[in-house]
Target: MepB family protein
Amino acid sequence: MFESIKFTRDVLEEHHTIQDLNIEPLNIEYESCYFRLANHTYRSRRAKKTPNKKGYFVVFWVKDENNKNRPYTYGESADKLIITIMDAAKKGQFIIPKEVLLKKHIISHNNIKGKMAMRVYPSWEENLNKTATQTQNWQQDYFIDLSDSVDSQNIAKLYQKVFKNKKNHPIRK
Model:
């Protein structure tokens, strides 16, 4: 099983079980999969650190009828996109609703082209250029730093209240 999915299971702990996990082979190097929690669907990716640019890079695309890469459409998108970062002791997740992905032109719909990849900037990324700072600013509402512990209230909010509020608990190592 993917490290990012094991990590997600640890984050959710006993509060909820990942159901209907399906590996997405097209983006396998980003630990791509799709699953359900309660009544919500999630597409999951693990972002990669790149050596020459700040932030982390992640892809999410499918093939069209001509076997060309294309962005996901709004209709085929999961309720939320989870982007997991696991960088030594630094760990966190972006949990972004598909409505936000549409608003930010990341998924396609009608006259919105969409994107097949993006860069994410967790809270620990500093000294960013202006464009990266703007991106980090909108992304911060959907990011939770899980390096030391899990803020169950914030996780419940970002995961759409899939488990009941509990006190912070450490992440299993």
